[in-house]
Design a protein that fits this description.
Blueprint: H1 8-32, H2 36-56, H3 60-84, H4 102-121, H5 135-143, H6 147-173
Helix pairs in contact: 1-2, 2-3
Length: 174
Amino acid sequence: MNPSLFSADGLVGLIFLLTIGITIAGGLIACNATRLVRAVAGLMICFIGVGALYYFLNSPFVAMMQVLIYIGAVAVTISFAIMLAAPEDAKDHGPIGALSGPLGFMTGLLLAVGLTMIAFKTAWTSAAKINNGSVEIIGIQLLTEYSMVFELISIVLLIAIIGALVIAREGRKS
């Protein structure tokens, strides 16, 4: 039996498709915008869509972290970097590659049709709920099972900060 559009399952499916549409639209805006500010706005829209997809995957904590970290920190930092950078003259990027015209469109269309056919022929089953996605479970796993990865990420971030300071200091001298 197929769910009706006005049933709970139908509305959830419709909202899920809307979320996918928002994510794809934000990605297209980010990739095709001619101005950097519009590209960052598209990136923010895409990040919101990805956060909503995480929520649909029964992980509200990861969804909130997606919104807080990627929109609240990364995209805002990119926006400030764009605003503080000196404007550049328009550059001629040279000849356009072979995949940027009709051949690229046909390749993308072929890929989309192939993935759509695979999606409709696949027997989708509901995944069993592993846990409730609570912050308590994530915290326990971060401090026990994934503690080494957690520490390695902090070391990588420390190296990135030191590298940024070195580059910034060198730029001031010249």
